[in-house]
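Lecture notes, continued. The same structure-token format from the folding unit now serves as the input rather than the output. Read the line below as a description of shape only.
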């Protein structure tokens, strides 16, 4: 079957072994054999396909699309409209993460649209000043959903608008708060907390945190609150810049706090995060648990110093459902951002197909049963956060070795 969002219905340190021992007890969630309801039914226009090998059917190996910004920025021809608000880059093209999100959304329209969903792409590179007019226009066009990846100021301006003046918002960028605003993007803090809970189950409760220098203060506060909520305490927080010297210096400056810690948590979308691990290990500590996050790039797994690091990440197998077609269409590998763009459209498309245009409502979006998409199993909370089910793995020998599969349901 092609990529889908399914709505779940409820009728080298010595601690690697310790991770394994704990997974059968306190950190394992109960699972139930529940039937799934496919929101979009068959997501391919032509119908369901039997397996992943069929994903490329109908696409030649040379079916590579032009750069996103050279295409008509209305995706789809008719149906309920979704407004995608992303910034163009310096050259006037969608690039980087914005382009990945746009392309993931475009693929979702092709898979799921069936002339029931279209996407209007709006450039918000001019900043928050363009938000009121852009949202008013979306409301006037009858958009059922806003999807945003933009600067915090832009997305916060959208989220701050009264809910009667705008459609619901899916935010794929930095966390924001607001009524009917949902943070659907890849949440590094959520990944970190899943692993911290496992550490707590191992009786490792004193956490030293290392974060990138550009982490916002609001995100740092959210992280600290989540760690305390998981039953752990923070002995200190240190920031590092994106170079080895800075990472090593951060560890040296945190020497006093590290003496109190039994766990080290390192955030960062960079291989430099492993320099922190190596520097801590170089102090001679063998009783510390190391936790990374889903944001660590695959190259980090190949750094020997990272061996023994626990990481929780979303179900990567689900992404394989669209990875081949994405690669063939855009001549680059599927990314987490593209997967999030796909799922944002998929959720809305499924609700429209099963419940009509009015189905994209707060009640349906925050259903306790959640959704299964190419980013795995997740559900949206009324406070705007996203709760995901993660698989657990430990870095060993250049790869992330599985310890526990993600639960089948909430």
């Amino acid at each position: 079957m092609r990529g889908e969002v399914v709505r779940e219905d409820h009728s080298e340190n010595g601690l690697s072994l310790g991770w394994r021992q704990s997974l059968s007890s306190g950190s394992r969630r109960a699972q139930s054999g529940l039937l799934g309801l496919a929101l979009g039914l068959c997501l391919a226009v032509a119908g369901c396909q039997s397996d992943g090998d069929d994903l490329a059917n109908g696409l030649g190996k040379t079916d590579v699309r032009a750069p996103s910004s050279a295409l008509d920025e209305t995706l789809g021809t008719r149906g309920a409209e979704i407004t995608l608000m992303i910034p163009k880059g310096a050259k006037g093209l969608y690039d980087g993460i914005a382009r990945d999100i746009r392309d993931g959304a475009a693929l979702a329209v092709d898979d799921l649209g069936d002339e029931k969903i279209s996407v209007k792409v709006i450039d918000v590179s001019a900043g928050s000043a363009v938000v009121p007019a852009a949202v008013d226009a979306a409301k006037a066009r009858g958009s059922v959903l806003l999807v945003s990846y933009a600067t915090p100021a832009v997305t916060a301006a959208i989220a701050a608008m009264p809910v009667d003046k705008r459609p619901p918002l899916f935010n794929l960028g930095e966390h924001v708060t607001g009524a009917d605003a949902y943070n659907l993007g890849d949440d590094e803090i959520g990944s970190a907390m899943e692993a911290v809970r496992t550490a707590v189950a191992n009786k490792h409760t004193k956490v030293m945190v290392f974060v990138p220098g550009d982490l916002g203060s609001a995100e740092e506060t959210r992280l600290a609150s989540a760690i305390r909520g998981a039953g752990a305490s923070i002995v200190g927080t240190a920031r590092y810049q994106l170079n080895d010297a800075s990472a090593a210096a951060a560890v040296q400056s945190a020497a006093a706090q590290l003496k109190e810690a039994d766990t080290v948590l390192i955030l960062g979308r960079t291989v430099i995060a492993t320099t922190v691990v190596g520097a801590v290990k170089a102090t001679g500590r063998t009783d510390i648990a190391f936790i990374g996050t889903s944001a660590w790039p695959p190259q980090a797994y190949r750094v020997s110093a990272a061996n023994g690091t626990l990481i929780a990440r979303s179900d990567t197998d689900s992404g394989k459902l669209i990875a081949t077609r994405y690669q063939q269409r855009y001549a680059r590998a599927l990314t987490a951002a593209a997967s999030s763009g796909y799922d944002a459209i998929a959720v809305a498309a499924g609700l429209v197909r099963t419940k009509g245009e009015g189905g994209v409502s707060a009640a349906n979006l925050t259903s306790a049963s959640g959704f299964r998409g190419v980013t795995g199993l997740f559900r949206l909370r009324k406070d705007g956060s996203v709760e995901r089910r993660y698989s657990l793995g430990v870095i060993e020998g250049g790869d992330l070795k599985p310890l526990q599969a993600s639960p089948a349901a909430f």
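Point for the exam: Residues 11 and 34 are 7 Å apart (CA to CA).
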